[in-house]
Inverse folding.
């Protein structure tokens, strides 16, 4: 990657990243990024069967709860073969929570050429991905003024996903305000068993009783295809997963599950 931080929290301001390898920014102990562009031109990958990301954070080396603050972010034109492609990913785990504040985010022109099963999630927010939910960390926060446009894949394609794999009966809450998700198309499946394309999803899987809450307000969500635009789904892990998409109004969508 161009920026790979494993020690103290990373701060990146007024930066353009291009011709990177695997990750534009990877921060393992907190991140503040403002006015950052990740340009996918001439991107290189180490392993097409691995995970590739534009801006990705996780508490891999944390010793306390983390803050992730993203503002004025533009990730675009990633045309890559990857088993999992995340233009923006905010992940909790390893016993620590992540407090997220993300504003003025644009993700556009993303294409995952990997054969199905594979996935491309414009922005993924969640926990338990690296240890199958063994640690109790979650992501809580607010995302506002976000545009996700032109996301395509041979597997599953999602605009924004709030996902929680958990074995500790945790609750994760993410609020999304003023979101536009357009032109999202996926023609296959992914390793979670999802298929096709969705504008926004709430996912949960557990061996206990986890709860992933996604509140969506004043948002325009349209995949431009005859597929549902919102999805509430449990991932089978032997327990009870409670997932919900709620709204205080103002949404426009092709699908009633996103209606005010």
């Amino acid at each position: 990657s161009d920026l790979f931080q494993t020690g103290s929290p990373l701060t990146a301001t007024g930066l353009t990243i291009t011709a990177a390898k695997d990750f534009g920014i990877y921060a393992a102990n907190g991140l503040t990024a403002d006015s950052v562009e990740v340009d996918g031109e001439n991107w290189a990958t180490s392993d097409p069967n691995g995970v590739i990301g534009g801006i990705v954070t996780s508490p891999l080396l944390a010793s306390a709860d983390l803050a992730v603050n993203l503002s004025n972010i533009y990730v675009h034109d990633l045309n890559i073969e990857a088993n999992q492609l995340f233009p923006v990913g905010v992940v909790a785990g390893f016993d620590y929570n992540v407090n997220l504040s993300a504003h003025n985010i644009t993700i556009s022109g993303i294409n995952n050429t990997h054969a199905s099963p594979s996935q491309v999630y414009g922005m993924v927010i969640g926990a338990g991905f690296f240890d199958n939910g063994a640690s109790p960390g979650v992501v809580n926060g607010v995302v506002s003024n976000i545009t996700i446009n032109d996301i395509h894949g041979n597997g599953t394609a999602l605009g924004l996903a709030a996902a929680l794999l958990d074995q500790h009966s945790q609750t994760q809450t993410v609020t999304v305000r003023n979101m536009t998700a357009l032109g999202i198309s996926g023609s296959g499946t992914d390793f979670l068993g999802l298929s096709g394309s969705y504008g926004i999803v709430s996912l949960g899987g557990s061996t206990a009783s986890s709860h992933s809450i996604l509140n969506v307000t004043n948002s325009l969500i349209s995949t431009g295809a005859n597929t549902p635009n919102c999805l509430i789904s449990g991932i089978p892990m032997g327990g009870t997963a409670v997932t919900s998409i709620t709204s205080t109004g103002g949404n426009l969508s092709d699908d009633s599950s996103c209606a005010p």
